[in-house]
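Feature request, filed as a ticket because there's no other form

It would be nice if the structure record came with a short human-readable summary line next to the tokens. Right now we just get the raw output. Example of a typical job, pasted below so the devs can see what we mean:
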Amino acid sequence: KRKVEESGGGLVQEGESLTLSCTTPGLVFEYYAMAWFRQAPGKEREGVSCINFSSSGKFYGSSVKGRFLISRTKTTVYLQMNRLKSDDTAMYYCAADPQASCQSYEGFSLLPHEYHYWGQGTQVTVSS
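Raw output as currently delivered:
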């Protein structure tokens, strides 16, 4: 059983919204930076968004900034995805790490190798 579990994916049409959820039943959630990555067939894994343990640092990839919103409660991290496009179609992964940083400056890089705990993924398919 994985220590990170995500859900909420599905099939939607362009312009619609979905909200993904992620929990960490095997981790002390409040001590971890949380992130969302996605990977489409034939493409590299892409950093979508992250949020630090205090919610004071948030980052969005350029392709989703202005459309997606990350947030967290005491138990759950959410990725609200609005105005979805066909290019958003991918497997979305939630990841956690106690040491990874998440910062808001423009040049920040959200890197998969900095996150050590991963969910199994939830598929988001956006039809045109």
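Something like this underneath would help us a lot:
The two ends are 35 Å apart (CA to CA).
The longest strand covers residues 90-97.
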